[in-house]
Amino acid sequence: MMRIAIASGKGGTGKTTIAASLAQTLSREKSLSVLVSDCDVEGPNLHLYLQPDFKDTKPVFQMIPEVDNETCTGCGICADVCQFNAIVVLNDKPLVFPELCHGCGSCTLTCPEAAIREVPVKIGMLMRGPGKSQINLRQGTLDIGEPQAVPIISALKKWYFPEIPDLEIIDSPPGASCPVVEALRGADYVLLVTEPTPFGLHDLKQAYQVTEELGLHAGVIINRASFDEKGVREFCLNHDLPILLQIPLDQQIGEGIARGKTLVEIFPEYEEEFIDMYEDIKKRLLEC
């Protein structure tokens, strides 16, 4: 199974547009079984385009420490081992900050009095089901007010359909922080979607740095391409980043996407472009 992740340094560059259109094209024209994973758990929206029937749902829990104050001696070891400052000891009494906890369990394991136990706290939901064009979609949704997206993404990536797909397309969160790293981990290839603006170039550099740190192969898609692409092209040339696809700044595309259509539904001729890009990616991976 091949995994292609789609990322960008900033939101609104067109990741979801690319993910939905690539999935539709390869499912219909190449007869591939395609799984799409919407890992943008703070604002998943691929379902708007693929229109799945979410047959299965599953809550996600994170284990949060709970301290027995009668047993606790206030030694402070739990606070010392917590890298995220989720536990502090004040006046020999531990105070837990659940919103900072990453659920690593270090405090529970190291407590000499066994005064800490872990309790499950729901932080989000997973959903999966078949969508149009015979595409399976799974997505995670972080509960309102919960700060930790990584556990949702990690649980989502482990929650497979019974049948193994030919291709998985991962729609990652925007940015270059921990949720992006978790979404990209294990990908065979990363498509970096950018736009020819100063902000687009700045954030492309950050996203590219993440792929470099993870040792992932990457290529670039320029969305809303216009006359001012020099900066993006120079960066790609200097870092040996192939530009695999360009999508023009076009009002008809914008209006169609706003109505819930994918790029290949607006302009079917782009199917050939997506097929060529997919074949190019396969060739590049074979040469690595």
Short description:
The protein is built from eleven helices and eleven strands. It has 288 residues and is α/β, with parallel strands linked by helices.
If you had to describe this structure to a student in words, what would you say it looks like?
The protein has 288 residues and is of the alpha/beta class. It has eleven helices and eleven strands. It has two domains: 2-60 and 125-287, Rossmann fold, CATH 3.40.50.300; 69-114, 2-Layer Sandwich (Alpha-Beta Plaits), CATH 3.30.70. It has helices spanning 15-29, 47-50, 77-81, 106-110, 150-158, 178-184, 198-214, 230-238, 251-258, 263-266, 270-287, and strands at residues 2-7, 34-38, 56-67, 87-90, 93-96, 116-130, 136-142, 167-171, 189-194, 217-225, 243-248.
Number of domains: 2
Ranges with pLDDT <50 over ≥5 residues?
Answer: none
Give the number of helices: 11
Listing every helix as H and every strand as E from the N terminus to the C terminus, the arrangement reads EHEHEHEEHEEHEHEHEHEHHH
Which CATH first-tier class of the largest domain would you pick?
Alpha Beta
Here the CATH topology of the largest domain equals Rossmann fold
Mean pLDDT: 94
Distance between the ends:
17 Å
Total number of beta strands: 11
Q: Report the β-strand fraction as a percent range.
A: 25-35%
Q: Per CATH, which architecture of the largest domain?
A: 3-Layer(aba) Sandwich
Shape: elongated
The major β-sheet equals:
9 strands, mixed
- Overall radius of gyration: 22 Å
Measured as a percent range, the helix fraction is 25-40%
Lateral strand order in the biggest sheet: 3-6-7-2-8-1-9-10-11
**Can you tell me the CATH superfamily of the largest domain?**
P-loop containing nucleotide triphosphate hydrolases
SS-based class:
alpha/beta
